[in-house]
Amino acid sequence: MAAADKPHPPPQPAYHATPGSILHADRGFYDGISRAERVPIFSFTLPVRSGRAWKVPSGHIVRISTPEGPQVGDLNIWNLDNPRERFWAARTRQLHASHVSTYDRLWSCLPYLRPMVTIIDDSLSDYGVDRYGGRCHDLLGTRCDPYVNTMLTGDSYDFHCHSNLTRAVIPYGLTEFDVHDVLNVFQVTGLNADGKYFMEASPAKKGDYIEFFAEQSLLMALSTCPGGDLSTWGWGEGGAGEEGEKKSMLDCCRPLKVDVFSLADQSVLEGWTRIEPPTYRGRHGMTIPEGEIRDTSNAR
Ligand SMILES: [Zn+2]
What we know:
11% of the residues lie in helices and 29% in strands. By secondary structure, the protein is mainly β. Strands 2, 4, 5, 8, 9, 10 and 12 form a seven-stranded antiparallel β-sheet that branches. It has a six-stranded antiparallel β-sheet with strand order 1-15-3-11-7-6. Strands 13-14 form a two-stranded antiparallel ribbon. The radius of gyration is 22 Å and the shape is globular. The site of zinc ion (ZN) has 8 residues, from loops.
């Protein structure tokens, strides 16, 4: 019997946390924030195939919604005061799951590794796992980009999510190199039996939403994916619809709405503190000289 065939208990999640760890959001606390009275600060509607960035003060709520029906959005997040600290999709996937929902947190990259936001509500949290193994709010994939498109098809297109996010951050002093792996909101994806990444049409309906509580002051950026609701996804312009009928991909594109709120009564935040990075103070095993090492044996 091959080792792989030997029965063994199912593998457990790789990352465990001690009770009270910041890995797990205090549900009662975040439910209190979710239900508390809000004051609208600003909002905007992001048109199809475009990108925009916006600032969010810590302790505020960000709501991303689908005002006209299904549409996928690609989300990036930075620490407003230090854009080297930015969302780390891969570690978030390991700490929580391949797809995120209420009470999951979006974590920052090394050497910061702390929650940037906590998800406090998700109208699609009941989506669960569909018959193909797909789940909603994807961390498996990343943004569409013009480089892979050109590599695979030779076509050139300037309004992929990577490009939309790049244009969005330029007014904030950031560049293409600051754009990073995304959370794909309202996007259903999975891995098939061969381990291949697949995407399905977005299940979002008019008025669906996901809400984030800002654990730090943030710069966020969102792209309305040129694939729209992904119901006709294919490389290049347009794609094959049901039964061969040609449907333009642009017909599947809809706007997304962003709302930022403050809390009317700050007392619901009692006990909430800014989470500091882990206290590792090692030097990765290195011994680093402080300066020039001089041979003083012949000193006069
Ligand atoms: Zn995209």
